TrEMBL record:
Keyword Nucleus set for record: no
Pfam families, A to Z: AFOR_C (PF01314), AFOR_N (PF02730)
Name of the protein this chain belongs to: Aldehyde ferredoxin oxidoreductase family protein
SUPFAM superfamilies, A to Z: Aldehyde ferredoxin oxidoreductase, C-terminal domains, Aldehyde ferredoxin oxidoreductase, N-terminal domain
Domain Aldehyde ferredoxin oxidoreductase N-terminal: 6-199
Keywords linked to the UniProt accession: 4Fe-4S, Iron, Iron-sulfur, Metal-binding
Gene Ontology MF terms: 4 iron, 4 sulfur cluster binding; electron transfer activity; metal ion binding; oxidoreductase activity, acting on the aldehyde or oxo group of donors, iron-sulfur protein as acceptor
Family matches, as SMART domains: AFOR_N
InterPro entries: Ald_Fedxn_OxRdtase_dom2, Ald_Fedxn_OxRdtase_N, Ald_Fedxn_OxRdtase_N_sf, OxRdtase_Ald_Fedxn_C, Tungsten_al_ferr_oxy-like_C, W-dependent_AOR
Membership in a protein family: Belongs to the AOR/FOR family.
């Protein structure tokens, strides 16, 4: 069993050292965001600001990165969340994670601040920090062009340099979008990180691993979701689905339906703009859309970007979405937080509370506003701080659509109340993925339970959160977990009697799901075949990892992140949503069209093994083997 090796880097002194993860930590935390959460708890002092010189950012891989496992090019950035003050984890594709491993490092632990703009090079087992003031001010595209094509690169754009709170980091055309990773790297004067090496990652059982991977790839290609729907439309295919169930945020979440949604849908994108499919390294799903922008072939927008630069600002301009998607990426701006902040600014003007020169339905000012936000010019510097801080200055807290300070994703929770619970409790703030992505089982998936009932949602949310946490910690894309819904339901279709019956039964399965989460999962889930990551981990590492232990890994990760948030002052009072979503009815004639957090939160805490204040109990921490992490 090869133990992970990290490079511990101090940018202030320019020194670094190898840091081997202990056998105990490897067995318990494995890698990716789970291991990163534990390292942040160990290596950071409480109350330290996210942009402080002593703040730590962990950039790491999972054991499956670079092994050839499907969808395994994802790497993780964990740090103190610039927007929420709690924990942040931001996931990214691109070449950097794979090349970091080939360079001989499973991760980087970075602290300090360089004296001038710098580049961190991880090349064949060595780390070098060199000044690069000539790169400061360049966009992400031009910065990456300064390095050899075969390098893995992770860079920031001008937004990160200027401290835009939701600035992102970019690897190739992939983005670590959420929580302000670009702002953290910018505060450290770290303009770019590059990696290259010739070491092939070691695999414990290479023959068995390779055979299993071939079976897994065939399974992915055969499954209707990962073999047909995602390759055909990508995540953009969710626009019309969400609109059909009134779950598509429109005009700053004032409603969930947009009459012109089809103009910015995945179907329209495929029919009128698509050049070809592409995808991340080692991924058979190929969900990326290549589209024309200014005469060039570039990466197309995901569902969130289409939703937020489309219906949520009252617009239906596909060309504007494509261009804003590209500009946000090269300037290093999270499309979700930025576009959501624009929608909030538009509603402020609509109500006569503030005027940023933005109006619902107009896209002609977007590029100009983006540049002003990136450069923090005048009043637009407020937009660079996100909706929560804007609301504190201008008012409008009831319709500033965020949780804990992070803007929500593009699923209207009043038509997906389990997703609303997930937004409220998500450790990094208003995130659909960290929140368990229950929208897939409520409003946009083929297998949909009653989207408006709170029944069973707490238990399913906890289960889904644990599963997705584990997949991420392994180093895989969360799309690889979409085979969890059996393919037979896609073949039957959402309107079949069988699919509808299962959807009706699911909310009543909550107690059973809770029971499974609180007994020894190694027994309960030992032979589950639709989540194959556990077997891949076992063959890659030699760890005794079965599906039960894999879900334990996810639960451990979620509880570690919760402990970090509690340490930093977040409490159960922060597990909430703005009043627009919890008090205002989306449909005035239907009293169920709001998010009933008061009904779901107590059950969620109980399911999690937390007390009434949302704190993990000693019993829960002891079962997960993380009592000492509570301090």
């Amino acid at each position: 069993m090869k133990l992970p090796v990290y490079a511990k880097v101090d940018l202030t002194t320019g020194r670094w050292e190898r840091f081997e993860i202990s056998r105990e930590y490897f067995k318990k935390y494995v890698g990716g965001k789970c291991l990163a959460a534990r390292l942040l708890l160990d290596l950071t002092e409480p109350g330290l600001g996210p942009l402080d010189e002593r703040a730590v950012i962990v950039i790491n891989t999972g054991p499956l990165n670079g092994t050839g496992a499907p969808s395994s090019s994802r790497f993780n950035l964990s740090f103190k969340n610039v927007l929420t003050g709690g924990i942040a984890s931001s996931n990214c594709g691109g070449q950097f994670g794979v090349m970091l491993k080939r360079a001989g490092f499973d991760g980087l632990i970075i602290t300090g601040r360089a004296a001038e703009p710098s580049v961190l090079e991880a090349l064949d087992g060595e780390i070098r920090i060199r000044p690069a003031p000539e790169l400061w001010g360049l966009d992400a595209e031009k910065t990456q062009e300064r390095f050899p094509e075969w390098y893995g690169k992770l860079v920031i754009g001008p937004a990160g340099e200027n401290g835009v709170l939701y600035a992102s980091a970019i690897s190739g055309e992939r983005v670590a979008g959420r929580c302000g990773s670009g702002a953290v790297l910018g505060s450290k004067k770290l303009k770019a990180l590059v990696a290259y090496g010739s070491k092939r990652p070691e695999v414990y059982d290479r023959e068995g691993f390779d055979k299993f991977i071939l079976k897994w790839i065939k399974f992915i290609k055969k499954h209707p979701m990962t073999g047909q729907s995602l390759p055909r439309y990508g995540s953009a295919g969710l626009v019309n689905k969400a609109n059909a169930t009134n779950a598509l945020p429109t005009r700053n979440f004032q409603s969930g339906h947009f009459d012109r949604a089809d103009a910015v849908s995945g179907e329209t994108l495929t029919e009128t703009r698509l050049i070809r499919n592409s995808g991340c390294v080692s991924c058979p799903i190929r969900c990326e859309r290549r589209v024309p922008v200014d005469g060039r072939e570039l990466k197309g927008p995901e569902y969130e970007t289409l939703g937020f630069f489309g219906p949520n600002i009252g617009a239906a301009d596909m060309d504007a979405v494509l261009r804003m998607n590209w500009l946000c990426d090269i300037y290093g701006v999270d499309t979700i937080s930025f576009a959501s902040s624009l929608a909030f600014a538009m509603e402020l003007k609509e109500r006569g509370m503030a005027d940023f020169g933005l109006e619902f339905g107009r896209t002609d000012e977007l590029e100009d506003v983006l540049l002003k936000v990136v450069n923090r010019e005048g009043i637009y510097s407020d937009i660079a701080d996100g909706t929560k801080r804007m609301a504190a200055k201008y008012g409008g807290e009831d319709f500033a659509i965020n949780s804990k300070g992070l803007e929500l994703a593009s699923y209207e929770p009043r038509r997906s109340v389990g997703m609303g619970l997930g937004y409220a409790v998500a450790n990094r703030g208003g995130c659909h993925l960290n929140g368990g992505y229950l929208a897939l089982l409520e409003s946009v998936g083929v297998l949909s339970m009653d989207a408006l009932t709170p029944r069973g949602k707490a238990q399913f949310t906890a289960f889904m959160q644990d599963a997705l946490e584990a997949v991420s910690s392994a180093g895989c894309c969360l799309f690889s977990a979409q085979t969890f819904v059996p393919g037979v339901f896609f073949k039957l279709g959402p309107n079949s009697a069988v699919t509808k019956l299962v959807g009706k039964v699911m909310p009543h399965m909550g107690p059973m799901v809770a029971l499974m989460l609180n007994i020894t999962p190694a027994i309960a889930f030992n032979s589950l075949l639709l989540l194959p990551h556990a077997e891949a981990l076992r063959r890659a590492t030699g760890l005794k990892m079965f599906t039960g232990g894999f879900l334990d890994l996810g639960e451990r990760s979620y509880n570690l992140e919760r402990l970090y948030n509690l340490r930093e002052g977040l409490t159960a009072k922060d597990d909430t949503l703005p009043k627009r979503l919890t008090k205002e009815l989306q449909d005035p004639s239907n009293p169920r069209t709001r998010v009933p957090l008061e009904k779901m939160l107590p059950i969620y805490y109980k399911t999690r093994g937390w007390d009434k204040e949302g704190r993990p109990t000693k019993r829960k921490l002891r079962r997960l083997g993380i009592e000492e992490a509570a301090g």
